[in-house]
Design goal:
Chains: A alpha/beta, B alpha/beta, C alpha/beta
Strand content of chain C: 15-25%
Largest interface: B-C, 102 and 73 residues
Number of helices of chain C: 7
Radius of gyration of chain C: 21 Å
Oligomer: heterotrimer
Number of strands of chain B: 12
Helix content of chain C: 25-40%
Largest sheet of chain C: 6 strands, parallel
Distance between the termini of chain B: 85 Å
Structural class of chain B: alpha/beta
Strand content of chain B: 5-15%
Radius of gyration of chain B: 26 Å
Order of helices and strands of chain C: HHHEHEHHEEEEEEHEEEE
Shape of chain B: elongated
Strand order of the largest sheet of chain B: 1-10-7-4-2-3
Number of strands of chain C: 12
Structural class of chain C: alpha/beta
Chain lengths: 257, 492, 211
């Protein structure tokens, strides 16, 4: 029986990196899942929670819990939003609140994509049959800080290791924050900018041709910084790399490039 | 021949480095230090070395038990803090039995007054002090200097800072921001040291100078890393031996210790001591771990004849009263969170305008000295979580920073631009329809502004973004729009 | 000055505790997690390896020759003066130093270049630590003031783990110090320098076999 999953596409991914979400659909379907996209969804409230706007964050998470009903796993291509729902959502709603059971439910069901592939679908990366289309190349993978809250290991990297013709290594100094940090990026532009330049230079020094970044916020920060420094490398989500290496059609790609 | 009194050290903004005018705005300093290549290099390299040392030492000593050990250490600290009134009572009894006098100070002024009274009662003229953050916190040195009692820092780093009219910028490596040239200049100028920039020679100069002072000092002042309730013991961890000198050579000793340092018993020290030095410097233990229980006893020929212990509240009781941040008091001052923090490494210690910088400082400084006085510090974090991962006693520093940010929101104390941005975002995300509308609007506006897919200049509160980097333009079609299109086309 | 009762009551109030509220037992030490060295291991080897790792110089000698080998070692290092504490005297260091031509001096008159020779109350294999207690006859300064500190350890004094050192029987002395290495600093640009305030040279000699 095909596992059924709900897809949660965070607001930044939705707005800036829709192809990552579409590739997520392609990969999940390729692995036998039926993907549902509850189209009433908006946002998990992470930005508000991190900014200390607790009431706004609570309202958004309640809303999310009312949209994602049922029992299906909720899969999202963003580690930080997965951490928000899985780790922090329950703290925003009192335990005796009428919405609390629904919030606990989404917290228990939410998975970051790479973890879902390995832990829930038990993907055997050696049997993946994925091959990088085009000449063998090297890619640098960005470690998004929020993976720390989800157990810290690098599931995406494990999956990517199963792709033939693509050598993937973390960006040197992987665990140092790229400086995005949500409102931090505009609250503290000087420090955020300096951290972004360090990350961009680490990527450039790695000599990799492709930058794999699974977090939309980090992707804006790193791509924007590289651009300011005069570089425009290809930047993709690991789901896109996987879909392309599996030769999958990415939904919607036929019309909009 | 010793450091002249010169008033508090001042920073790039002209304000006293650790005790600036309040409310403190950290931006002026941050930007100055970011532009200072020497500080950036010195702090970057030193924190890197210590961070690597910590990781290697903890991994080799504890392997996969590390997480459980940290959690055990956290339990030991938390238990003592949750019953701190009880354990301080036990400590006072035991320390009193051993002959120490224990005093209670509600705030810095009271702590200094008690220390001065003790010093005067011994007719002290020259004091030696070992490295202690809490004495920085209460500005003890300034109080003694104002009272005309000469007081010399004896930790090498602190001694150099004192000569140079500077202040510590890291919990464990106080002069992390200075290089050997600065040390050499200070020694030549202040104590007639030889012309050398060799750390070994410079250290020898300091040793010789400070030996003379130790011989003459009539009062030693130390801090304390832990207080052991069951035995009335003060634990002092040092590498140089100055802490030992301060508790050996002068005829009298004062120890100033924050109340939160208490642990129930000696057993409880085992996980803490095993983690402390490894987390701080990568050593298995500091070179000297002293257990001081009362003054010297009958028949002993050295050590202080009197020991006065001053227990400081200094705002800690307000932290105790808040369950959401109380566990910040577990902190054992190892500095690991500073070494690993991307923001500390760039802003550097003096940018925090307080004795405690880095993630733990961004939490406890606003708590101890008032959130309205340090409104920027809780926001000065990308919440990357590296500090939480490094903390040997499992303090949820990012969670506390978020809690303090919420305080500021509740107090309606956010900058206008940010408040506007968050409100607009909240409103746009309230329903899918509004979200679609907002996405279309943003996509249109940014699309127009974009040049080859990048926006180079934004107005209003978003200017901070484009001051530093470009903003990639949003996609022409959001995922949700794409999904609806596919649904309408019958493929979904 | 704030009085103790008022001070502690304030803290109790902050915690929302009443003065007579019971205090649960402190967490028991999780020995399985914390202990790194079990009893019965090869303690001497581990201890000396850790001493060396901490920057100490090491030697071992059968107990019968312990004093003479220690004194001879100091003589070859060019050390002409030594300070003994009561434990070192008991171990025969006075006679051994006389034979080796090392002049014994009292602590108060010792030149810095002297060696301070002490016994220990215990040692710890886990970290290469020696434990020194202040008491009549064993002042704090012997191991601190001179540029060289020699600690003489008997094999049976070596405990496996720091846990065991925290559980030494008897009441706490006025000063107990765990020494793990020569005096060190890295305050100037992170460069490691030994001998800041305390000894630059730390020598640990273990006497093996029964005494």
């Amino acid at each position: 029986m095909a596992p059924e999953v709900d897809l949660f596409v965070p607001c930044l991914t939705d707005t800036f990196h829709p192809r990552a979400a579409a590739a997520t659909v392609a990969v999940l379907e390729h692995l036998g899942c039926r993907v549902h996209f509850p189209d009433d969804q908006t946002c998990c409230g992470q930005a508000h929670r991190n900014a200390g706007c607790t009431d706004d964050a609570a309202a958004l998470i309640r809303r999310m819990a009312q949209v994602f009903t049922g029992e299906r796993p909720i899969v999202t291509p963003s580690g930080s939003c997965a951490a928000m729902v899985a780790r922090h959502a329950v703290d925003l709603v009192p335990g005796d609140d009428p919405d609390a059971p629904a919030v606990r439910s989404i917290a228990a069901r939410t998975r970051e994509l790479s973890r879902f592939l390995l832990d829930d679908l038990r993907l055997d990366v050696t049997q993946l049959g994925a091959r990088w289309p085009g000449d063998p190349t090297t890619a640098a993978w960005h470690f998004p800080c929020h993976l720390r809250e989800l157990g810290g290991d690098r599931a995406a990297l494990q999956v990517l290791a199963g792709i033939e013709g693509l050598r993937v290594a973390p960006i040197p100094d992987a665990e140092r924050c790229c400086g995005f940090g949500g409102t931090f990026a505009v609250d503290e532009p000087a420090i955020s900018g300096a951290l972004g330049r360090d990350k961009a230079r680490s990527f450039l020094a790695s000599g990799a041709e492709i930058l794999i970044c699974d977090e939309s916020g980090c992707a804006l920060q790193i791509a924007g910084t590289l651009s300011r420094l005069g570089h425009r490398p290809r930047l993709v989500h690991f789901a896109e790399v996987l879909a392309e290496s599996l030769g999958l059609a990415i939904p919607g790609e036929e019309i909009v490039p | 021949m010793t450091a002249p009194a010169r008033g508090p050290a001042r920073s790039v903004d002209g304000e006293p480095t650790l005790f600036p005018r309040l409310p403190f705005e950290w931006r002026v300093r941050t930007e100055a230090f970011l532009a200072d290549e020497q500080i950036q290099r010195a702090v970057g390299e030193a924190t890197d070395v210590k961070d690597r040392g910590r990781r290697a030492a903890c991994a080799s000593a504890f392997g996969d038990k590390l997480a459980a050990l940290r959690s055990h250490a956290a339990d030991v600290r938390q238990h003592a803090i949750d019953h701190i009134d009880h354990y301080l009572e036990v400590f006072v009894q035991a320390a009193g039995m051993a002959g120490a006098r224990v005093h209670f100070a509600v705030d810095a002024a009271e702590a200094c007054a008690i220390a001065l009274e003790v010093a005067r009662s011994h007719d002290a003229k020259l004091c030696v002090k070992s490295k202690s953050m809490v004495t920085e916190e209460i500005r003890l040195l300034e109080a003694f200097e104002e009272a005309g009692i000469e007081t010399v820092e004896t930790d090498l780093g602190e001694f150099i800072l004192q000569l140079d009219g500077d202040a510590p910028s890291h919990i464990v490596m106080p002069m992390i921001h200075k290089d050997r040239r600065a040390v050499s200049r200070a020694f030549v100028r202040e104590i007639g040291g030889e012309q050398t920039e060799d750390p070994e020679r410079l250290t020898a100069v300091a040793r010789k100078h400070l030996r003379g002072i130790f011989r003459r000092a009539d009062l030693g002042i130390t801090g304390g890393n832990f207080l052991v309730a069951e035995t009335g013991t003060i634990v002092v961890c040092t590498n140089e031996g100055n802490g030992r000198f301060c508790a050996t050579a002068p005829p009298h000793q004062i120890a100033v210790v924050g109340i939160e340092k208490v642990v129930a018993d000696l057993d409880g020290l085992a996980p803490l001591l095993k983690l402390l030095a490894r987390s701080a410097t990568g050593q298995p233990l500091t070179v000297y771990t002293q257990f001081l229980t009362g003054p010297r006893r009958d028949g002993e020929t050295d050590g202080p004849e009197t020991l006065d212990v001053i227990l400081l509240d200094g705002g800690r009781s307000t932290v105790l009263a808040r369950p959401d941040v109380r566990s910040a008091l577990r902190c054992i001052r190892c500095g690991a969170c500073q070494n690993v923090c991307p923001v500390y490494r760039k802003a550097t210690g003096h940018a925090y305008g307080s004795v405690y910088g880095g993630p733990i400082g961004a939490v406890i400084t606003p708590l101890l000295r008032g959130i309205a006085n340090y409104p920027d510090l809780p926001a000065a974090s990308s919440l990357c979580g590296a500090c939480r991962e490094a903390c040997p006693v499992d303090i949820d520093l990012p969670g506390m920073l978020v809690a303090l940010r919420a305080d500021r929101v509740v107090a309606r104390n956010l900058p206008r631009g940010k408040r506007w941005l968050l409100r607009a975002l909240r409103s746009a995300l309230a329903t899918p329809r509004r979200m679609r509308g907002a996405q279309r609007l943003v996509s249109f506006l940014l699309g127009v502004a974009a040049d080859e897919g990048m926006i180079r200049d934004l107005p209003g509160p978003a200017r901070g973004w484009t001051r530093e980097r470009d903003l990639p333009a949003p996609a022409r079609e959001s995922f949700r729009a794409r999904w609806r299109r596919l649904q309408r086309g019958g493929t979904r | 000055m704030t009085d103790r009762a008022a001070f502690l009551t304030r803290l109790g109030e902050a915690l929302d505790r009443r003065p007579r509220d019971p205090v649960p037992r402190a967490p028991l030490l999780a020995e399985a997690l914390v202990r790194r060295v079990a009893a019965g291991s090869l303690l001497v080897d581990r201890f000396l390896a850790e001493v060396a790792a901490a920057g100490g110089e090491t030697a071992r000698a059968p107990i019968a020759e312990l004093a003479s080998i220690t004194a001879a070692r100091l003589a070859t290092l060019g050390i002409h003066h030594a300070i003994l504490d009561a434990d070192a005297e008991r171990l025969g260091m006075r006679e051994a130093c006389d034979r080796a031509g090392i002049v014994l001096v009292p602590l108060a008159e010792a030149p810095e270049a002297a060696a301070g020779i002490t016994g220990v109350v215990a040692a710890v294999a886990e970290t290469g630590t020696v434990v020194l207690d202040a008491a009549p006859g064993t002042p704090r300064g012997t191991s601190l003031l001179p540029t060289t500190h020699v600690a003489i350890v008997l094999e049976e004094q070596i405990l496996p783990d720091l846990i065991d050192a925290l559980r030494l029987p008897g009441e706490m002395p006025s000063s107990r110090v765990w020494v793990t290495g020569p005096s060190k600093t890295a305050d100037i640009e992170g460069v490691l320098v030994t001998g800041v305030h305390g000894p630059a040279r730390w020598i640990v000699v273990v006497g093996t076999g029964s005494g």
